[in-house]
Write a structure and sequence with these properties.
By secondary structure, the chain is an alpha+beta fold. It has a single domain, classed as Alpha-Beta Plaits, CATH 3.30.70. Strands 2-3-1-4 form a 4-stranded antiparallel sheet. β2 and β3 form a beta hairpin.
């Protein structure tokens, strides 16, 4: 899973989702915190290095600083 970005508003998150979707990914948004909320935009990728690298590079080309999240 990659965290593409964090945004301060749902509207910004929706715009990011639209941009990432146009690049061929299936992003989703998760809201964080009730007070001073922010939104995180994620994409799921296969756990192989080639797929992960391609997704990270694509997100970087779009201007994001993606973070690889590893969950058991």
């Amino acid at each position: 899973m990659l965290l593409a970005t964090r945004t301060a508003s749902r509207e910004q998150a929706d715009a990011v989702v639209q941009q990432i979707t146009q690049a061929g990914f299936a992003p989703y948004v998760q809201g964080v915190r009730a007070e001073n909320p922010y939104w995180q935009v994620y994409i799921r990728v296969a756990r192989d290095a080639a797929t992960t690298d391609a997704a990270v590079n694509a997100l970087r080309q779009m201007g994001f600083a993606p973070e690889l999240l590893v969950r058991p």
